[in-house]
Design goal:
The structure is a single chain. It is globular, with a radius of gyration of 18 Å. It has one domain: 2,3-Dihydroxybiphenyl 1,2-Dioxygenase, domain 1, CATH 3.10.180.50. Helix content is 31%, strand content 25%. The strands form two sheets. It has an eight-stranded mixed beta sheet with strand order 2-3-4-1-5-10-7-6, with helices on both faces. Strands 8-9 form a two-stranded antiparallel ribbon. Strand 3 and strand 4 form a beta hairpin. It has 275 residues and is an alpha+beta fold.
Length: 275
């Protein structure tokens, strides 16, 4: 197994991400007119996987923990049948890493069998890679299989189509100087034509509070960019990756299960109907 550096790992992750999210250069160019590039700080990245012992959360986490990242906390996203953990590097020089896994026993036997067929295609050298988290989709997939999984789980469908890569990166509002808060940034993005997750219902901003009712987190995300994906039976345009934006309070560095569940809906196909 070839070793890999953190620089190389994050470069590989970012390369996949930028390919599956054409919003990245557009948003960076737009914000760079108001912000110094040094102020565009990536708070965290997020990865998805299936809760199978060959590729589960713990397996992906090793890509980072062997390079110094440390586990911080875990979360149950019951609404999505997802379990998650996040990791930080003690140097503070790298984004936090949020990894989630879909609990396969929440799906029908047919859906589980389809996922097992996909996982069974992964070459052993990929399973053993120190950069599994940035390998993209290591299996062949029919569009009909994608559709069947989507009927049960948007998460499963997205994972089947895109595989191992960042599904989002996250810009920190706290590090920006030209936006008073997350609300101001969201308004700016909408005014410039970016559609936000929850925009149709005026619920773009997800909020989390401490026991005293004070803010811990505010989060928002774009609706995932639609990208062309190759399937065995042709190419289709489906949701790819998205960009998240976060505002933290009271020095809080963690996450909130409710917020995370809503942010995940940025990749839901149903949110793209009619768009």
């Amino acid at each position: 197994m070839n070793k890999i550096s953190l620089h190389d790992l994050f470069d590989q992750l970012w390369e996949f991400y930028a390919t599956q999210n054409p919003q990245v250069p557009e948003i960076h160019n737009l914000l760079s007119r108001r912000e110094d590039l040094a102020n565009l700080v990536n708070d965290h990245i997020a990865l998805r996987t299936f809760a199978d012992p060959r590729i589960n959360l713990e397996i992906l986490a090793k890509n980072f923990t062997r390079l110094g990242f440390e586990e911080q906390a875990s979360y149950e996203l019951a609404e999505k049948n997802v379990f998650a953990k996040y990791y930080v590097h003690p140097s503070g020089q790298w984004p936090k890493v949020f990894i989630s896994e879909l609990q396969l026993d929440s799906l029908s036997q047919k859906a589980q069998a389809l996922i097992q067929e996909l996982i069974g295609q992964i070459p052993e050298k990929v399973l053993q890679s120190h950069a599994l988290c940035a390998m993209g989709r290591p299996w062949d997939l029919n569009y009909s299989t994608y559709q069947k999984l989507q009927q049960e789980s948007e998460y499963a469908a997205w994972m089947s189509a895109h595989g191992f890569q960042m599904n989002h990166a996250t810009l920190s509002v706290n590090d920006m100087t030209s936006f008073a808060n997350l609300e101001a940034l969201v308004s700016f993005l909408e005014e410039n034509g970016f559609e936000m997750n929850g925009q149709d219902s005026n619920q773009e901003i997800q909020k989390a509070f401490d026991p005293h009712g004070d803010y811990l987190l505010k989060q928002a995300s774009t609706l995932a960019a639609k990208v062309n994906v190759k399937f065995l039976d042709g190419e289709r345009i489906i949701p790819g990756c998205y960009y998240e934006f976060i505002e933290r309070f009271q020095g809080y560095e963690g996450f909130d299960p409710g917020n995370a569940s809503k942010i995940m809906e940025s990749t839901n196909m149903r949110n793209h109907r009619g768009h």
